[in-house]
Amino acid sequence: MINAQMAFEAAQKVNRANWLKEAAERLSNRILSVANTGKRELTCSIDDLIIGAENISEAGEMLSYIDKILEELGYDHIIKPNGTLIIGW
């Protein structure tokens, strides 16, 4: 039988994967919604991207994950000094 720590780690792994997947889908839906209006950029707050983060480490992990996905998919993105993220295509 597995111990409690192993069960906890297994649950955490699934929860983290679902959290990342949900964030990517939420962002993708927002991009598609804006693109369907004819616009070529999405403006949002970084706060919108770290929903579900429990601490600064997790928020950083989420932002790194989103940065990687945006670059892999060919999006341009910048963060303004006020924390506004602009994603362009």
Keywords for this structure?
3 helices, 3 strands, alpha+beta, elongated, 3-stranded antiparallel beta sheet, Arc Repressor Mutant, subunit A, single chain
**What is the CATH architecture assignment?**
Orthogonal Bundle
Largest sheet: 3 strands, antiparallel
Low-confidence stretches: none
Largest sheet: spatial strand order: 1-3-2
Percent helix: 55-70%
Average pLDDT for all residues: 93
Q: How much of the residues is beta strand, in percent?
A: 15-25%
CATH topology: Arc Repressor Mutant, subunit A
Rg (C-alpha, Å): 16 Å
Number of E-state strands: 3
Broad structural category: alpha+beta
List the helices and strands and how they pair.
Layout lengths: L3 H32 L5 E5 H4 L6 H17 L3 E4 L4 E5 L1
Antiparallel strand pairs: 1-3, 2-3
Could you characterize the architecture of this molecule?
The protein has a three-stranded antiparallel sheet. It has 89 residues and is of the alpha+beta class. The model has no long low-confidence stretch (mean pLDDT 93). The relative contact order is 0.14. The protein has three helices and three strands, in the order αβααββ. The protein has one domain: Arc Repressor Mutant, subunit A (Orthogonal Bundle), CATH 1.10.10.
Offer a concise description of the structure.
This protein is of the alpha+beta class. The protein has three helices and three strands; from the N terminus they run αβααββ. It has a three-stranded antiparallel β-sheet with strand order 1-3-2.
